[in-house]
């Protein structure tokens, strides 16, 4: 799933280094919808963007910092990417402090694709939870994500430890927002994902949401993703005995923007479709991998997958604006500047011509193919002539 992961003590130590300790008191008071929308961001690899710049450009207030792993050399202690001990970290703490100073907050993600997880190296749920508690305490976390996939979700003991640790953290940290992320398939999730759900049921554990990643599994655009979410919805109902509304209220989606590891493409229109589905069905979470990739490559249509750009044409941080909208925010806008290539004549359109790169909000008017259109809500790179009916973004006001 998340294959583009890795390119390569305590409060007193932080204070000695001149870095403010990121306590819960420092964190902004955010409602859970922000943690539910937080996109993944790698703070140490894949050319990390400035999170404050992204916040100011998109309206997004929270990020999912990835990933906490066991040390590459073995052992039961938390590290960033298997190489940076949490106990001695000052860099992630400094980033978190900047985000909080700008009115935002973070969740920290455990696991991801590849690497060794603490559930594999710690001997019990209690031992695993004790190590993750260090992360929660050090950074004053109000949210944490368990990204359970290859290879640990094929290991019964590791899944038992991870799910048990999630349950213990939720119990010992009242109000902690706990999400579970796992692989997506056309059936919703695969056999191992289903076993993970059954493990959670056996432990009596219910997180804020279970989210699937419908990419890297033969998916083709948003319609296949929505179909997988519907299958996962049925699986949640059947596994936990939930009614439909309760299942949707515990279901989420974690996407991949642009070109996936498997060569699938998920463009802006696909994100709009899944956003419409998520909001109309009241899903509990809507996020994606990753902010590091939310910018255009030098070749905007390159046929390779990058950890630092999306491999599709876009403006910077365009996909993050979708997560901000899921949280209920209106992303900051820029005034469209494109004008018709020829001066208007009698009977011609007098409003500006639609531009694929401009950002429009509800009420903005454009012209295309001799018709005038009015935007119903925030949109970008959605052609009025194509999408007024398909996505219902534009209202067709008729011929100019």
Task: Please give the count of helices.
Answer: 13
Rough outline? globular
CATH topology of the largest domain: TIM Barrel
Quote the beta fraction: 15-25%
**What is the assembly state of the chains in this entry?**
single chain
Which stretches are low in confidence, meaning pLDDT under 50 for 5 or more residues running? Answer: 5-25, 335-347
What's the mean pLDDT score?
88
Proportion in helices:
25-40%
Keywords: Hydrolase, Signal
InterPro entries: CBM5/12 (IPR003610), CBM_sf_5/12 (IPR036573), GH (IPR017853), GH18_Chitinase (IPR052750)
Protein name: Chitinase
Q: If you had to describe this structure to a student in words, what would you say it looks like?
A:
The protein is globular and about 75 Å long. The chain folds into 2 domains: 318 residues, Glycosidases (TIM Barrel, Alpha-Beta Barrel), CATH 3.20.20.80; 68 residues, Seminal Fluid Protein  PDC-109 (Domain B) (Ribbon). About 8% of the residues have low confidence. Helix content is 33%, strand content 18%. By secondary structure, it is of the alpha/beta class. Strands 1, 2, 3, 4, 5, 6, 7, 8, 9 and 12 form a 10-stranded mixed β-sheet that branches. It has a 3-stranded antiparallel β-sheet with strand order 14-15-17, with helices on one face. A two-stranded antiparallel ribbon has the order 10-11. It is built from 13 helices and 17 strands.
């Amino acid at each position: 799933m998340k294959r583009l992961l890795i390119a390569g003590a305590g409060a007193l130590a932080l204070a000695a280094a001149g870095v403010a300790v990121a306590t819960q008191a420092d964190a902004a008071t955010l409602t859970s919808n922000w943690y539910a929308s937080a996109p993944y961001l790698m703070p140490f690899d894949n050319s990390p963007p400035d999170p404050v710049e992204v916040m100011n450009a998109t309206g997004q207030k929270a990020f999912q910092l990835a990933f906490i792993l066991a040390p590459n050399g073995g052992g039961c202690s938390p590290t960033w990417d298997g190489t940076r001990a949490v106990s001695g970290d000052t860099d992630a703490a400094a980033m978190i402090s900047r985000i909080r100073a700008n009115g935002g907050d973070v969740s920290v993600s455990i696991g991801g694709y590849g690497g060794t997880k603490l559930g594999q190296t710690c001997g019990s749920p209690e031992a695993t939870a004790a190590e993750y508690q260090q992360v929660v305490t050090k950074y004053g976390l109000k949210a944490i994500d368990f990204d359970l996939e290859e290879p640990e979700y094929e290991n019964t003991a590791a899944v038992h430890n991870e799910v048990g640790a999630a349950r213990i953290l939720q119990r010992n940290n009242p109000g902690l927002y706990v999400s579970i992320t796992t692989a997506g398939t056309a059936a919703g999730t695969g056999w191992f994902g289903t076993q993970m759900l059954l493990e959670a049921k056996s432990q009596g554990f219910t997180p804020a949401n279970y989210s699937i990643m419908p990419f890297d599994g033969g998916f083709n655009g948003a319609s296949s993703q929505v179909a997988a979410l519907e299958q996962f919805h049925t699986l949640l109902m059947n596994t936990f005995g939930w009614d439909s509304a309760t299942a949707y209220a515990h279901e989420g989606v974690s996407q991949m923007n642009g070109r996936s590891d498997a060569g699938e493409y998920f463009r802006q229109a696909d994100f709009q479709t899944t956003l419409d589905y998520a909001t109309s069905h009241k899903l509990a979470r809507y996020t994606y991998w990753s902010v590091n990739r939310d910018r255009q490559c030098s070749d905007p249509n390159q046929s390779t997958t990058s950890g630092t750009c999306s491999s599709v044409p876009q403006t910077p941080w365009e996909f993050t604006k979708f997560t901000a909208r899921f949280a209920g925010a209106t992303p900051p806008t820029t005034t469209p500047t494109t004008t018709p290539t020829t001066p208007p004549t009698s009977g011609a359109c007098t409003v500006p011509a639609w531009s694929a790169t401009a950002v429009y909000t509800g009420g903005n008017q454009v012209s295309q193919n001799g018709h005038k259109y009015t935007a119903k809500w925030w949109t970008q790179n959605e052609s009025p002539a194509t999408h007024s009916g398909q996505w219902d973004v534009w209202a067709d006001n008729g011929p100019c």
